[in-house]
Records
---
Amino acid sequence: MLDPSFPIEEIVRRVLTRLRAQEMAAPSADGENGIFTRVEDAVAAAREAAKEMLKHSMADRAAMVAAMRRTAEAHIKEFARLAVEETGMGRVEDKIIKNRLVVDKTPGVEDLATEAWSGDDGLTLLEMSPFGVIAAITPSTNPTETVVCNSIGMIAAGNAVVFSPHPAAKRTSLLAAALMNRAVREAGGPRYAVCALAEPTLEATNELMRHKDVSLVCATGGPGVVKAALSSGKKAIAAGAGNPPAVVDDTADIEAAARHIVAGASFDNNLPCIAEKEVIVLSNVADYLIFNMEKAGAYRVKDPRVIDRLVKLAFTPDGKLNRKYVGRDAKVFLRDVGIEPPDRDVPCLIMEVEPDHPFVQEELMMPLLPIVRIDKIKEAMDLAVEVEHANRHTAVMHSKNIDHLTYLAKAIKTTIFVKNGPSYAGIGVGGEGFTTFTIAGPTGEGLTSARTFTRKRRCVLVDAFSIR
Ligand code: NAD
């Protein structure tokens, strides 16, 4: 029976979207949409595209990037809805923000700045040249965001790319890849500059990474894919897991800190790798922070038995992260532990725990935010360093004390360090700077952009072109 509260137009829209996504993301005999069944065919097509890219001017590449932005922009809502529908994770309204972000703030060809030296001996250029074919492995948590962001950066840099997306987000990711491929082609670029694997199994991904014609591997995901990329025998850019702490001291604007932490930790149901995953607060301001977090909408769980039940949901009996609950709404957790949720939006659940609690130690990607109170600032900051587990990813601090901010920033060595704002300011939402969804901590490229996907080459002209 149809649910009368569910409008028929919505059902028709969903079915049509799903069918279109299936059609776009299906491998075709001629590879028209860039989706290939065999790794060999995908790499061969991308290799030809990479060769052809060399004949294109920078203006041509800029036109390809502009076309990708326009196409992605026209599909923002569809991407957001499809991703939530296919993966069951995240929030449509936040995925719309994330997709808009990559359209607007992913750098293009302007990112490729030439360095030059001129003098008595002539002119030397240091140019950013393409690698050729890139194998890009993408996650389920930001599926279209990563495909669009990587495509823009990699094509701007003059490469071709073969994507192997997460199987749980296959349909959505392949749709984005197929649309990016079409946009490049329609802007006058190669036929197959953006390719993808129709069946991105682990075996296929490993075959792709190790293929002789792949020059660069760019892996975005957890520890498994980082290890696989680093063992591929290729130059690898690895964007791995995080467990970002948010430290709050007693000089902070506590009301603002509470709002920012709740906003950052509940963004897309805590899926982003940069999202606050635990709060470490000085004891003398802890109650006021928690009061203000509740004021910002967070639901406080006090009963230790309920916290234990939440642990049983978040982890499987053998202690692994329970994928069934990753990126789910906070209300799902409340219902599943037998609490009727309030009749309002619940961005996240908060609970006080000890430092060794699994919610503090593990990267959950769930809207469950543990809070640890600590008496002394040095211990609080050292605990933050410990629970970040040397991921070198992201950390947040709310403080007006420059010594504290400097100590933690230096000690924790994260790629992103956000002061007095929500974590997402670190990728350009309400913070300065460009965006990316591939933050390469382990291999040190940091926030990736077109220039990351280039080889630096020196071109020397002797005894000429110095006109000073
Ligand atoms: P995941 O690690 O399960 O999968 C990511 C990709 O790697 C998928 O395409 C998957 O098929 C592939 N993969 C996984 N193990 C592999 C292996 N052994 N060999 C070859 N391929 C393998 O990650 P997910 O759940 O989709 O995404 C969440 C994780 O990714 C979190 O840990 C998050 O912190 C991290 N992440 C990091 C960044 C970043 O920029 N640093 C961005 C997004 C997500």
---
Amino acid sequence: MTPKKKPYYITTPIYYVNAKPHIGTAYTTIAADTLARFMRLDGRDVKFLTGTDEHGQKVEQSALAKGITPQEYVDDISQEFHKLSDLFGFTNDAFIRTTQEHHKKSAQALWMKLVEKGQIYKSTYKGWYSVRDEAFYNEDEIVDGKAPTGTEVTWVEEPSYFFRLSEWQDKLLDLYENNPDFIAPKSRLNEVKSFVKGGLKDLCVSRSSFKWGIPVPNDPDHVMYVWVDALPNYISNLGFPDENATDFKRFWPEAIHILGKDIIRFHGVYWPALLMAAGLPLPKRLFAHGWWTLEGEKISKSTGNTIDPFEVVETYGADQIRYFLLREATFGRDADFSTSALVSRINSDLANDIGNLVQRVLSFAFKHAQGQIPLPNAFTENDKALLKLAADMPEKVREHANEQALHKMCEEIWAVVGEANRYVDKEEPWALRKTGIERMNTVLYVLAETIRHVAIVAQAIIPNAAGKILDQLAVSKDRRDIHALETPLISGVDIPKPEGVFPRIIAEEK
Ligand code: ME8
């Protein structure tokens, strides 16, 4: 009996539609897509969600400025995020929009659950609000008349609903204590802990000074505060409020939320508190990655120092950008986006290391081994060492994937590529052509088998190129998952004429 596939639910933040996607927003989805792809290759039952966050004062104001309705405005920009999915080949199973009816009903149902449990009450909010952050700030957080994030704040006094967040302080601290892996990396866990230890005030969860939002049940003068509307997307996608919905039962406790460190407080404090208060299970883990910066400044749509993903993909290619973003930054830390670093990664890791390896081996086999990956003869210690390195690699990558260490996943695969290149240089198959065809065949087989391992796992990171490499190795489409690596490469079959997968497209900058 085949074991039932283990569920894996991965999400990105739902992005605000107040501006087009930029490289920072693409990054989070690339990271989640890579994990989703890897887990599918590894035989997991994956659900991968992304989408757009379409309500709030910011959207209402932007639509007004353009002279269109908020709905027209969000329909337009949401499309840009769909185009981004096509650009990078994202494999999300669903794309949620908070303006969808099923989401609105779900957020309202969560609200009602909180009301029934006495967790929501009406009062008056007096304090600072940043429209750009869609966040409330305490007096002691205001720096030189601005939010701690540097955005403009306005003084707000309006009748509002409040969530009894203050009641959840101890439960949250217990959660972090008993589940130290709930928030990663550690630095973010510590940040969240100290925020909660500093004391929690009840959270204002409705607004009445604008209309573009999900109406508060039984009080149409209020719309839900944008985060209370947005966070439940992770469960509305699974069928909540129907707690018996197949997807909710199967995927909810398995959830891994990938997000940027800017929104860790919302995910690490408000979200678990709302869920506990509603009596719902908590997600398994939150991973907050760092920021991409441009000359040290956070890349951000509000400051305008953005990098357009469509432009860089046009110039360098989608796989190249995916690889660069995943490999260059330690996942969890900030990294600077520089053209010279990008070009150098493309030329060294992609063109030189993997591109050359594949090209050298496959063209040689095509020309000098009758267009086939030949059958091997007895393996030497050197052959066995490379084959073992390749065979052990998927397990190492799996361990890193389980910890969302995306840069280490890349490193592990490329360590095999590096070793394979050293093996080619040492074994010199071109010289063996004259001195020992049998040995040449074995060397070619060992290399092809190593490349198959690399390409199968690398499908998670560079899906287009890895797919092409597998085509060139004549690996059939149904034998491209990690399970297929348990049986050896089928050699002695014709391979197509090899073509370069990663041309050295750009002259390296001096
Ligand atoms: O916060 N570097 O949406 P948002 C890396 N709607 N990642 C970046 C980045 C950068 N420079 N800039 C943005 C929201 N991001 C809410 C989320 S979820 C229930 C609601 C990424 O459009 C990063 O993932 O402002 C960050 O958390 C997210 O975009 C913020 O997207």
